[in-house]
Amino acid sequence: MKDVFYVEWVPTGILIKALVGFFSLLSLCILLITIAVGVAIQHPFLIVVLASPLAFVLFVFWNYRGIRIKVTTESLLIYYGFFNRKRILIGDIVSCEPTKAPFRRYYGIGVRYGADGSWAYTTSLGDAVKIILRKGKPFVFSSNNPEAICNTISQMKNVL
Predict the structure, then answer these.
(1) Secondary structure class of 111 (helix, strand, coil)
(2) In whole angstroms, what is the distance from residue 32 CA to residue 85 CA?
(3) Interatomic CA distance for residues 6 and 144, integer angstroms
(4) What is the pTM of this model?
(5) How much is the pLDDT for 40?
(6) Three-state DSSP class for 144?
(7) Which of 8, 118, 124, 158 could bridge to 13 as Cys pair (CB 3.0-4.6 Å)?
């Protein structure tokens, strides 16, 4: 059985929460005004048309609300929503270093391809961990405590 040595939850940044909140409130107001004015009674399909973007944005936000990170004796596991899961064997990691995830490199947050050729899972433009692999592109992911992750990975590499 694999022992878990490190677990972290990195929530989405305040900027994204504010943007989603603003868009959701705006969409909800437009929907409620349409219903109150009575246009939706004459055209019921309009409710579906107006509610669909709101439902989509809320689902996407819920799906990408944060990154879950686990370091076990064998691997580094990063989960970012339902479809973005990364499993990296500890033995395949050449180096691990704390870094930043600046806008000029990744042009935003989320699942990104960086200007430097790296892949990234970012929830904010702040602290992150950069993993250099034996094969493939570097991988960067947001973290609240990048030093602890790198130290744990180093310890696991020494055990192998």
Answers:
(1) strand
(2) 38
(3) 12
(4) 0.85
(5) 72
(6) coil
(7) 124
Tell me how far apart the alpha carbons of residues 5 and 149 are, in angstroms, rounded to a whole number: 10
Count how many residues are written for the chain: 160
Q: Residue 24 CA to chain centroid, in angstroms?
A: 20
For 115, the 3-state DSSP assignment is coil
Among the residues of 38-145, which ranges form H helices? 39-42, 45-63, 103-106
**68 backbone dihedrals φ, ψ, rounded to 5°:** -105, 130
* CA 152 distance to own-chain centroid: 21
Helix, strand, coil in percent for the chain, rounding step 5? 40, 35, 25
pLDDT in tens, the chain (160 residues): 478 899 999 999 898 899 999 999 999 998 888 888 887 778 888 888 888 989 998 999 999 999 999 999 999 999 999 889 999 999 999 999 999 998 889 988 999 998 888 999 999 888 999 999 999 899 999 999 999 999 999 999 887 6
Can you give the pLDDT at residue 43?
80
